[in-house]
Specification:
Elements lengths: L6 E4 L2 E4 L28 H8 L8 H16 L1
Antiparallel strand pairs: 1-2
């Protein structure tokens, strides 16, 4: 009979997540994560606060709509 017990390696020593029976024969399979740890995402907070810290009044709805139309024309022709 076999039982699967997970664990981690700490300072080169396998530390099981549950106690192992005394005298048990073990086989260790190292599981390597396929994905690296994610890095920072998105826009840095300093850059966002710089965008939001504008002088003057915000653009009106018509100006924003025109910007969107212009951008769509650039992107899709």
């Amino acid at each position: 009979m076999s039982t699967t017990i997970t664990g981690v390696v700490t300072n080169g020593v396998v530390v099981p997540s549950a106690p192992l029976p005394e005298g048990a024969k073990v086989e260790v399979t190292v599981v390597v994560s396929a994905k690296p740890a994610p890095g920072p995402r998105g826009v840095p907070a300093a850059q966002v606060s710089g965008i939001a810290a504008r002088d003057g009044t915000p653009p009106d709805d018509e100006t924003v709509k025109r910007w969107i139309q212009d951008r769509r024309a650039e992107k899709y022709g």
